[in-house]
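It would be a great kindness if you could assist me with a short task in structural biology. A protein sequence and the structure tokens that stand for its backbone fold form the material at issue. I should value your view on which stretches of the chain appear to form regular backbone elements. The record follows directly beneath this note.
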Amino acid sequence: MSSNLVTLLNAVSAVGAGAATTLSTNERYQGGNHSIEVSGTFVATVELEGRVQASGAWQSFASLSAPGVLNVPGTFESVRGNVTAFTSGSITLDCRYPLLQDLASLINAVQATVNTINTTTGSTGANVATLLARLTNTRATLMDNLVNLDVAISSISALAELQNLVKQLRAEGRHL
């Protein structure tokens, strides 16, 4: 689905930072990791940057000089692309939100359609009301589960990163 893409750089052919996407307040990004894709034919360097808080400094978390896709943990408040070196070509940077969120969008669409049918036909039957109630409960449960899953995945990722840092510090002969 193209609806789950946000373009951060659109056929850019110059040095500079692109549009930022605020992840923390965008419902589409809640509950999981997201993918960032750099595409185009170019001779350039694209820094992928994120920040943890709205007023925080941008920190580079990846650098690409060729098309590619990265999976980025949902730990940033916002992300953006920044072309730091440019020689030629055209660069596009897209951010894709989690596919599971599409399921919530589909449930919302079905709810709206059933509501429209109910209103248009003047039907107040128990079957339509029951279906609407079930869809509402299903969406709420889905969103709760997505948030819980994201918390669990983030905790596991953070623990793995801490363990790797401890190993690195020990390998360098540093003591904790």
The radius of gyration is 21 Å.
